[in-house]
Amino acid sequence: MLQTRHGKRTAQAYVKIAHDMVKAKLMTPEHAVRSGDPQALDQLLAPIFDSVDEKAAEASSLLTTGLPAGPGAASGIIALTAKKAEELAASGQKAVLCRIETSPEDLRGMIAAEGILTARGGVSSHAALVARQMGKVCVAGAGEISIDYTTSTLSCSGRTLREGDFIAINGTTGKVYGRKVKTSDSELKQVLISKTMKPQDSELFQAYDFVMKLADKFRTLGLRTNADQPDQAANAIAFGAEGIGLCRTEHMFFEGDRIDSVREMILFAEDYAKYRAEAAEARDDAARQSSLKGQYSQAIEHFTGALSTLLPIQQKDFEGLFETMAGRPVTIRLLDPPLHEFLPQAGPQTEALSKKLGVSYERIEALGHSLHEFNPMLGHRGCRLGIVYPEITEMQSRAIVRAALAVAKKTGKKVLPEVMIPLVGFVAELKLQLEIVNRVFAEEFAKAKTKLPYLVGTMIEIPRAAITAHEIAAEAEFFSFGTNDLTQTTLGMSRDDSGKFLPPYQKLGIVKANPFATIDQSGVGELMKIAVKGGEAVRPGIKLGICGEHGGDPTTIEFCHQIGLTYVSCSPFRVPVARLAAAQAALKYPSAAAPAAGKAKAGSAPTSAKSAKSAKAVAAR
Amino acid sequence: MLQTRHGKRTAQAYVKIAHDMVKAKLMTPEHAVRSGDPQALDQLLAPIFDSVDEKAAEASSLLTTGLPAGPGAASGIIALTAKKAEELAASGQKAVLCRIETSPEDLRGMIAAEGILTARGGVSSHAALVARQMGKVCVAGAGEISIDYTTSTLSCSGRTLREGDFIAINGTTGKVYGRKVKTSDSELKQVLISKTMKPQDSELFQAYDFVMKLADKFRTLGLRTNADQPDQAANAIAFGAEGIGLCRTEHMFFEGDRIDSVREMILFAEDYAKYRAEAAEARDDAARQSSLKGQYSQAIEHFTGALSTLLPIQQKDFEGLFETMAGRPVTIRLLDPPLHEFLPQAGPQTEALSKKLGVSYERIEALGHSLHEFNPMLGHRGCRLGIVYPEITEMQSRAIVRAALAVAKKTGKKVLPEVMIPLVGFVAELKLQLEIVNRVFAEEFAKAKTKLPYLVGTMIEIPRAAITAHEIAAEAEFFSFGTNDLTQTTLGMSRDDSGKFLPPYQKLGIVKANPFATIDQSGVGELMKIAVKGGEAVRPGIKLGICGEHGGDPTTIEFCHQIGLTYVSCSPFRVPVARLAAAQAALKYPSAAAPAAGKAKAGSAPTSAKSAKSAKAVAAR
What we know:
The structure is a homodimer of 621-residue chains. Chain A is α/β, with parallel strands linked by helices and 621 residues long. In chain A, helix 14 runs parallel beside helix 18 (390-411). At the A-B interface, helix 17, helix 19, helix 20, helix 22 and helix 24 of A face helix 17, helix 19, helix 20, helix 22 and helix 24 of B.
């Protein structure tokens, strides 16, 4: 049993040995938990290549090696567009989505594909981020590959493949093969996700489950997941998640026809805002009000119409999540990305929208120009949208509270929504958004003649928020560190553009680890400590989470434990990794747990009480 | 005399009253200094419209009102391209450069034009920034104006003007007129800059000069200017600057033919870096070295050739600055902007470069794609360039030291270069760049058999630098706060993209002042304090400056005085403003001056001694 190969079998060997030796009392539970490599647990979930077939492919058909951005193995037909990937999946064929880079519009294709291959972008690019969240195999930034959408070809190392040819990618090693390679679901996935194997039939599952439960005995950090869809949430629960730490509502905006309503909303948002401002100025002047209504009738009709269309759709989304989470807390982040990310591409997409909405092609095109940003990361996004367009915050808040009330009524179970305001830098921003959320919740509670506990908190994802955390905590019932953006702003380093200098930086020893994978403790970490201190000073016991990609990184998890966070939130398929890492951190730093920390906290009931005092009581529960 | 109109005459009235009453002993010098509005001194330098003619223009030809981004009045012929502005100026005609937005490529056109008008961009956009530095009249972000480059027209409020028609802009009010309006140089400019009036003939100048000298008696902050060209530097000295706080070397890259050498350098930089890495790996393997030389011969020839061409050109630039500054310190920032900013536009520009360098059009185009960045503000720029391409740092260092040696020899005067490494976030970055600078300086000193004092320091412009200032100060002999970028990163807010949400933010009271004009004290200011503390702890008396646009803002200057900075650096035409503001700050907070502060400091001799101890001695001089 000790004679195992390194690589894919390490994690399997670890859980089996730990299980057997603890059962035989040859090892203490502490030792068993300490001795595992959390990172390696990824391997238990990743689909795998048949090793003989992969070797053969490596000899004959290796195209290139990209960045291993989502572990596992995927083999399928090349799809150069999301649509093609969807078509292939719909017809029962396996697809590998190959793109120069991916954007939110490719989401459905990414879901449909077995794996994702990109020519551009780093381990934290859109493709890699979404892939990890879905537990999808991904090789990113394979720069030697050149993709030509016009000829529908993919070329590399002198070979040219066409859309429809086979390709295989190994997201654990980054290798890309120009042919089909045999794959299969990991055993653990067969038990936990596809349920094609019974728990009692899998020794591996039993060993894994035993080790995870051991880990839970020591762990003091709570464990949440980043999930937007019920099936992702269900997977995360199967892996041990105790709540959702980040639901990105914008991912929901792309599904089905709703994207057209989103676009309709965006198209008329600015005019509607003008109308709102002028109407507010006109006050009691009825004649002027009526003339404004006439002048802006198109904007009013489209903007409010689009919001009305989106409201029940978002409500349904949230209902699905609340039901799946069955009483566990769900942190929902309000709209975050810049609006131009939702616009259609020029050409047929824009033409179709123009016809559907009765708006000229030129107007849609002009909007694209007007929304163009030099640095979208630092642009009109996050709560800056909700401040300029409060109607969007209102719609999303209403969808959340209505969904919560509906699910509570239907299931009789608790529903624990936590509304999260993104990109706050000034306490006044949070205050303005909070007023809307609280007003809408109160309105719906009154209508339903019942209420339920909820929290409103904020992301800490720009340096100013960390520095002024003592001001922000007066309004925020929880903090969640958005360490992706906090790293980008603190280091002045764009994740998506760092591919040109981060590799030499690592080579020269300027950075020890990729700061987008493992938290930069002396920089970003110091700001986090300042924020924790500021938050605790004003609202003792404040709930503190992390929901950046770092939340699934063992070294970062240890740091989060040390500085006293309440929970970490990570991609569903990273939950086992985080579970073991959190236990190891607790064993290593037994006194570092947050004053009122404990697993119970992540799952503890939020409250609608709005004072710091009662928030403390909640956190202490 | 007390019956003056508000507006243009306020500053004139102020200096005259202060002068007369202090001379008559009816007012104390303290009171005279305290009672002025520093901001208003701008008016003394701005070209002015004939008030009768402007009123007539307002009645008949007002097109729109944009953002007042560079005070003063400009009237001239519409030039829609930088080239056209240059042509008009060359033929002795006054031009107003009208662009949708400006980019560094427009620099020569901006210099040639009387004024600049942009349809897009805020008060801190490229146009506004450069305009203020040049003391050029500018109206930015006049959103109602639509410029069509293909038809060479400018339309607004139903009127369409053609390139060649007259236009006039008032950079103090933001007003844009569709006709010629009479203008003249301000009296102070006639005395100090154009020298068309003798000092003794101008009562206004004498009053101004008297008040400025009074201010200097109280001021403890040093005063520097941001200037890249000898004439800008000379203007700044005329206004009272004691040194250059920021010379942006990249502005020099655009002049004349040299841009082609810059482009040649960029085109082959990546291949040359590959060659360097492979050659380093091959070490003593002579055969491999020779084969690499063959393989990369084109990259080696072009890259090193371009650097050799640029070296003497940059040296000449620095010689001009050093001569003009005549013994005053000159802070030179190494290359900062992302390389794609230097590439030619597609079409004829790229074709011409292709022919000139014998490089295919496609290769230049492909480089543009490969250098494209999602968030250039946070991309491959600053010292990240010098780390990946150390040859560029070497060339610039050599140009600086050779220029310093040459001017010292020629004039017999001191030359005080201060080399500034931009965008440092990690002390290791600074260390690597410092090694190059110090090596090159030592080489040139040895060759010249003489030496001269110099400093190497860094910008503090990203939050991580402020947070780890105690580490960085171990290597940096001075800090200069780059508050433009520090504000962008600390607030997670792109200056150029903030136009959509900053106006509502100011309306709603979320921000009190525009954070790109007046420092955000609770956010950015706190980081500055952390950096000052960290720097002082490790290198007591470290020279501390500010070179962002904020350096010319009175409220910010007061803050800089309070936190103990050594000097402020601002655009040449803001120097009088800063001079009065710094004096007022010293009167308001007499005990807040830096431990070793004093006007002498900004002008004090730097040293080549590299220990913190001797740096302290320098600062204390």
